[in-house]
Amino acid sequence: MNIARRIYCRAFQFCFRAALPLLPYREPEILADMEELAQVLKGKGKKSVLIVTDKGISALGLTDGLKDALRKADISCTVYDDTVQNPTIDNVEQAREAYLANHCQAVIGFGGGSSMDCAKAAAARIAKPKQPVQKMRGLLKIHKKLPLLVAIPTTAGTGSETTLAAVITDSATHHKYPINDFFLIPGYAVLDYRVTTGLPRQITATTGMDALTHAVEAYIGGSTTKHTRKMAEEAVCLIRDNLKRAYDNGQDAQARENMLRAAYCAGIAFTQSYVGYVHGVAHSLGGRYGIPHGLANAVILPWFLEEYGESCEKRLGRLARNCGIADPGADDHEASRIFIKWVRGMNASMGIPEKLEGIREEDIPRMAAHADKESNPLYPVPRLMDAGELASMYGKIRVRETAHSAAGETTASSKTGERSGQTWKSAVS
Prior knowledge:
The chain is α/β, with parallel strands linked by helices.
């Protein structure tokens, strides 16, 4: 990155960091279960609500407990369950239409990050009917109170129940629109581990590593605070002790409950201290190929930690020591290397590949430009990178096709994704 742009990025980040104490950050009120939520809604006089979810959640019957609790409280509900993995502008508009057609008074995002992001964006469109999603892209473009917004996470990873962010895909351009506004922070978050116990192992793995990425990027960035460091450290400690347990035994109630807490803490950390280039690159891959966000983050994270090198060693080393991943006596360089090795080991133990298949070389310049535009100057990364430098990172994380692999042989890196009987698809049509 050239000197002039570097100065601009760091000046922008310095001003934003200085303004943090003045910004209206808030945390959602935590509720324990669906019955408590129904009573809260009843107490606020809500007679009809919209539940935004997806077909998989509906098919598993996970919303049944919520619907029963609402029915007992004499609250009607409309279910919109067409949300896709990377929610689109069409999803947002359809959810908004369902809300208006059924005279709803609150929006409940029920599911993973995709459902919660769709619910947030739909609520924003309800509040701002003349402002399209494309015009909400970026920072503080909504500035208007939304309908009552509730988040019920069924995965322990995205942290969307805590954040001021929603990410929506334009299916026509394959671009993702990160929307950031304080009004997108849900008023309530229901952290009920029971809706996570049936989560498939591969989703448990990637969403858990997604939470880890949130905590790590918030911790090593330039906008970290005492509070966000505390939240990030708690998240990493919980992930260290509970993610593999939840992966090995999905019915482990304590592990599931602790992972919901980890995702919540990581969400608080990155909401206030932001993320970094791992997210910028992951969003471009999700927009272009539909690669699941958690999977992309899990694969990309160790590559960027290595690339940052000395610029992140002090903070990463401290994180490694404080979370018991490295010995207390390890110096910053050693501790940071141990942390990166631990991340790779966690990925490998859960069948997450070292690299991603399906990334086409001819797409890289366009995706790198998109990641650059999203990330700079907003993300307070340890070391600044421009589009050209980011393009080189796509080369590191992609599986390069060979004559052998084209003929049907599996490369060593793709084999990594088949452990525990799982086959990972890193690109979907």
